[in-house]
TrEMBL record, chains A, B:
<feature type="DNA-binding region" description="H-T-H motif">
    <location>
        <begin position="15"/>
        <end position="54"/>
    </location>
</feature>
<keyword id="KW-0963">Cytoplasm</keyword>
<dbReference type="GO" id="GO:0005737">
    <property type="term" value="C:cytoplasm"/>
</dbReference>
<dbReference type="GO" id="GO:0045892">
    <property type="term" value="P:negative regulation of DNA-templated transcription"/>
</dbReference>
<keyword id="KW-0804">Transcription</keyword>
<keyword id="KW-0520">NAD</keyword>
<protein>
    <recommendedName>
        <fullName>Redox-sensing transcriptional repressor Rex</fullName>
    </recommendedName>
</protein>
<dbReference type="Pfam" id="PF06971">
    <property type="entry name" value="Put_DNA-bind_N"/>
</dbReference>
<feature type="binding site">
    <location>
        <begin position="89"/>
        <end position="94"/>
    </location>
    <ligand>
        <name>NAD(+)</name>
    </ligand>
</feature>
<dbReference type="GO" id="GO:0051775">
    <property type="term" value="P:response to redox state"/>
</dbReference>
<dbReference type="InterPro" id="IPR036388">
    <property type="entry name" value="WH-like_DNA-bd_sf"/>
</dbReference>
<comment type="function">
    <text>Modulates transcription in response to changes in cellular NADH/NAD(+) redox state.</text>
</comment>
<comment type="similarity">
    <text>Belongs to the transcriptional regulatory Rex family.</text>
</comment>
<dbReference type="InterPro" id="IPR003781">
    <property type="entry name" value="CoA-bd"/>
</dbReference>
<dbReference type="GO" id="GO:0003700">
    <property type="term" value="F:DNA-binding transcription factor activity"/>
</dbReference>
<feature type="domain" description="CoA-binding">
    <location>
        <begin position="78"/>
        <end position="179"/>
    </location>
</feature>
<dbReference type="InterPro" id="IPR036291">
    <property type="entry name" value="NAD(P)-bd_dom_sf"/>
</dbReference>
Length: 216, 216
DNA sequence: TAGATTGTTAATCGATTAACAATC
DNA sequence: TAGATTGTTAATCGATTAACAATC
């Protein structure tokens, strides 16, 4: 029925959700695509086009009900599903992500944290006791987590990913510098913080070059 | 002279850099756009188009020299500039980012870490002693950092950003859930980890829906 | 009813891909 | 020289914007 929704639209959905959440908590009841577009710095046309990929959530002459639209987007994103997740690698990044992330309101439920280093196994991370990676197969066979968060060193990433794929995990969030390729049937979201840093570096250089040119 | 390079091209540059770094360390000397395209899962055409925004780095009949191309991209990204950076907010995320990030090879040099909480001020984070945020103006006036990394709670983000802008900071990397708008003359790179999580949630739901349909 | 704003179609713009002459 | 592969132009494709009839 629905034709495939483009990647650009999907990438914008979390941003809509974020802005609608803000509007909700500031008590706004209704908003027009025009008002929202001004807040977000996009065109009203784009907002209407994007939303209409999923259905007609607005009302002519009125606009959109903020709370209703927020709920619709949450459903589209699957934020109500509570997919189970395990986190592998309880180093700095793993501990931070496990501690800071509101999994429940982002579509997931964290159910276990694993590491292979003896100094880390058994330590506490935000309500969890870090388990031995050697026991992960048993855990997966029992609990069937939907997703794995990989916060392991980049040298280990590929082996761990293959390992987990062989145990039936089909979705990954990968924080390591090396990227995990999206192969058949496997869903991957790569997070590369250093890419963001490099993009920022580019923008600063570009800006400096422009200033230099302006002076001439 | 150069016309404006599109955002899509810039977004891909760090990925090229990453792959070229891998090729370098595996000792590969030359690569054709075709080979690289297969490794990266993009078209050879796109690679050639992208690179030619910045110059002709290849040689007909030969391809590209890996090391030379990597250096060129590093220069384009400004990774050799060592822009000075301060980090504000030494909570979990701040400490992790300060510790895990290879600033030197990503265009930056971290020169100071700040926080406003008395329990955190004075503690050590990877070679740095956390300084009192109350003293940041003095520090900025003296050292003129180019960029600030914001790892503060979302409630504090906007006030801190305005504060720092008034002290002359023009570029930000923002980790807080609330986004920092790109206003005139201010460069911003927003990193929203929960957006990535939501995108992954979408992809998993989409995939499940498809499976369900296939069964019918 | 009159005004506002949607949903949707059509027009425009930009990005990606294909093709090929230039040339190492 | 012959083969390979670039740089670049032209063709295609997709995404964004504009416009407007439908309708609350």
């Amino acid at each position: 029925m629905d034709k495939k929704v483009s990647g650009s639209v999907i990438n914008r959905l979390p941003r809509y959700y974020r802005h609608l959440t803000d509007l909700c908590s500031s008590g706004t009841e209704r908003i027009s695509s025009k008002e929202l577009s001004e807040r977000m710095g996009v065109t009203a046309s784009q907002i209407r086009q994007d939303l209409n990929c999923f259905g007609g959530f607005g009302q002519q002459g009125y606009g959109y009900n903020v709370e209703m639209l927020r709920t619709e987007i949450a459903n589209i994103l699957g934020l109500n599903r509570g997919y189970t997740a395990v986190l592998v690698g309880a180093g700095h990044m793993g501990r931070t992500f496990a501690t800071n992330t509101k999994f429940e309101s982002r579509g997931f439920k964290l159910i276990g944290i694993f590491d292979s280093s003896p100094e880390v196994i058994g330590t506490e991370v935000s309500d969890f006791t870090v388990m031995d990676y050697a026991d992960i197969k048993e855990f997966i066979d029992e609990n069937h987590p939907k997703m794995a968060i990989l916060t392991v060193p980049k040298e280990a990433m590929k082996a761990v990913a293959e390992d987990l794929i062989s145990m039936g995990i089909k979705a990954f969030m990968n924080f390591s510098y090396t990227e995990l390729a999206e192969t058949e049937g496997i869903i991957v979201e790569n997070v590369h913080l250093s890419d963001s840093l490099m993009r920022l570096s580019y923008k600063i250089s570009e800006c400096e070059n422009k200033e230099k040119l302006d002076k001439e």
